[in-house]
């Protein structure tokens, strides 16, 4: 099964935790084709050309995870006056 363009190599989604996705990206980076796929994904998320990417590393994986698993929007806050 081929991943969709917005999920990149492997699968990111609600059925997979961020930690599971990190393990998947790390395993992918240990293969020559996986490194290239990770670089292409990073380039697309960051608006870079594939040749402009840094080497695959933990920081690149963190950036991919930040894109694939954005933080939840802040909830309503209670603005109570302080006494």
Which features does this protein show?
mainly alpha, elongated, 83 residues, disordered N terminus, 46% helix
Task: Provide an overview of this structure.
Helix content is 46%, strand content 0%. It has helices at 18-29, 32-46, 58-68. The relative contact order is 0.14.
Short description:
The protein has about 80 residues and is an all-alpha fold.
Main sheet: strands, sense, barrel: none
Tell me the radius of gyration: 16 Å
Assembly form of the protein = single chain
Average of per-residue pLDDT values: 79
Strand percentage, roughly? under 5%
Give the overall shape, derived from the CA principal axes. elongated
Helices and strands in order:
Blueprint: H1 18-29, H2 32-46, H3 58-68
Helix pairs in contact: 1-2, 1-3, 2-3
């Amino acid at each position: 099964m081929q991943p969709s363009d917005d999920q990149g190599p492997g699968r990111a989604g609600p059925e997979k935790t961020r930690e599971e996705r990190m393990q998947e990206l790390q395993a992918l980076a240990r293969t020559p084709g996986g490194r290239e796929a990770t670089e292409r994904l990073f380039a697309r998320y960051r608006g870079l050309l594939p040749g402009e990417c840094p080497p695959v590393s933990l920081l690149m994986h963190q950036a991919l995870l930040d894109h694939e698993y954005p933080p939840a929007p802040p909830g309503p806050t209670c603005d109570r006056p302080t006494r």
